[in-house]
Write the structure tokens for this entry.
Amino acid sequence: MTALIPAPRTSAVLFGLWLALTPTTGPGQVLLGVLLALAIPAITARLHAADGQARRPLAIARYAAIVMLDVLVSNAQVAWGVLRGRWRPPKSGFVVVPLDLRDPVGLAMLAIVTTIIPGTVWTELALDRDRLLLHVWDFDDEAAFVARYKARYEQPLREIFER
Amino acid sequence: MSTGVSPVVELVAAGLLVLSGVLVLVSAIGFLRLPDFFLRMHPPALAYTLASWCVAAAAVLYFSALESRMVLRPLLIPVLLAFTVPVTTVLLARATVFRRRKRGAADVPEPLTSASEVAKPEQAER
């Protein structure tokens, strides 16, 4: 059974996603969903660094809430920055963030969060995952930005993926 | 014009759609007018985050009211966007940094990984 379903969580998510995406749920769609849920993890097995390492649902929910809130705030900040750009251009630039997070799935999540929040662009990750290069839309103090980024976005992921 | 949906729901859904439109417009203005590639990477985030959330929320609200049941399917749009957009943006940013370094441009930082480290065989990658 474990050989047939090497990544049960991924398979379950894919199956659910397929049923949610198809407008009608007939036996044909269910069968197709099962096939996809079995085939995709098998085909992409060599890409999986780890499967199902995330624990602590409460911490995940809290993190999701923080990220969604910050997306709203950053949307307003970037929109305002664009509109007033002519007479006060944003102080943007590259920032190097030293990383403590090492878990590959955690780092992938950090990349998603960084991209999703307007105002930060994930630019480069050092080969040894020691440092991260970001382009930041508007910041005053580099040290303060790094401290906030690490505490707000990296630390919760360490708790979710590395404990 | 009665569609069987209360005017309050229609009003809120319309407001969400207008807000989404405004965000996309601001995003487009920034994309058009900002002077540097990396600056231009930031405004599109408005379109693929809050603007798409507003459209999804409006769809959930309106069709839930219309069909008198919870219609949550539109929420898949922002979720799938969140997982697919980073692939392109990270790739674009990486490609630009790479090309500028190749050209010897002074406006991008040094590589985080030195060439000698890259040449070393990778160990314990997993």
